[in-house]
Amino acid sequence: MNLGAYTLIRKIAEGGVADIYLAKTKSVGGKDAYLVCKCLRRALTQDTDFLTSAINEAQYTVRLRHPNILEVFDLCLVQGQTFLTMEYMDAQDFHKLIRGMPEHGASSVPYPFAIYAVAQAALGLHAAHELTDAYGHPLNLVHRDISPENILFNRDGDVKIADFGIAKTSQMLDVTPPDVIKGKFNYMSPEQAWGDRPDRRSDIFSLAAVLYEATTGHAFYPAQSVADTITRARMTLFDKPSELVPDYPSDLEAVLLKALDIDKKLRFPTALEFKYALDDVAKRHAWNIRRQTWIDFLRQHVDFPDAPLPLLHADNIQLDAQSILRPLDEDPNATDQVNPDELLTILEKTAAANPAPVPRKAHKDDTDSEPAPVRTPFKPTRRGIARIVCAMVIYILIILVCILVMVFL
Questions:
Q1: What is the pTM of this model?
Q2: Distance CA 183, CA 59 (A)
Q3: Which of 112, 227, 233, 260 has the most neighbouring CB atoms within 10 Å?
């Protein structure tokens, strides 16, 4: 199947939001190169809010160019199909490494390698947090879904953060209702669990939770249900690493507990400072991991594909003529915020020739599906409580006055 300049080869994964395909196209040199096409479900792209979010997300994520971030190339519309083109990695994720350690006689990832991986991910996260618009104004981009599944390794030792699929910036139109939780519950910061607006410190919390799981071999929020997990996340109810692993390094625990503080003001202010703190711990214990040592470790503990493909990168991609973002980049009057009305008109015209399929029910094994939105109960503010108390006092005083009037009359 062809989508413009891209030939879909096989489906890699599917979920409630999109189907993900391995695809190939021609690079600048005319050679075949491989990438990923993330095809958004047509039923979803007919929704104005979803489409606005997808376009604005792509406007920012295509700017992320860092060795520790999986690249997003473009957002295209071909024959009524909206899809993202992204870097493909012959990779495995941190989750598989953590879960595979018992097969190698270990209960957790060794401290030096776990710290190395998370420190590399922190560099990518910091680059995303520091992203600015065309005028140098900070975008305050937040990933909101850091988890072991979104930290990838390949056979060459590269560590990359993937799937900025629910990322938001301070300038982006946020179509998520304020009481809806987005992100994976097991690594969620307390402010996200309450449905509050996250910031970069929320990502740092989630990254620290990943390191916690990797170095202890235990789930960060051990719970029997989603509701129990959310309750634990709101109160940050977790065991200290030293309570699970008696000889857990005290300095590493101190760094983790700072990054996992319930009060985000007390956490590391940036992912870079979190990385530096981890580097200090590694130096103190002489856990100096060279890249080749890391590569050897990965190849011993992770199964990679036998034949790496020639991959496509941002510097040798030819943008498709049906790119949604390309006209915006070429328009000197274009703003960072995109009005999707014109795009919706195009989608409506193509919908007649390409009817939207009946939405598929998400399967429990979907790798790309997000957890069902969970609406949080009413959480009164201090001002709201004060108003309620004042109203009750006034009501009681009125009743007392009425009683006194009746008594003396």
A1: 0.75
A2: 21
A3: 233
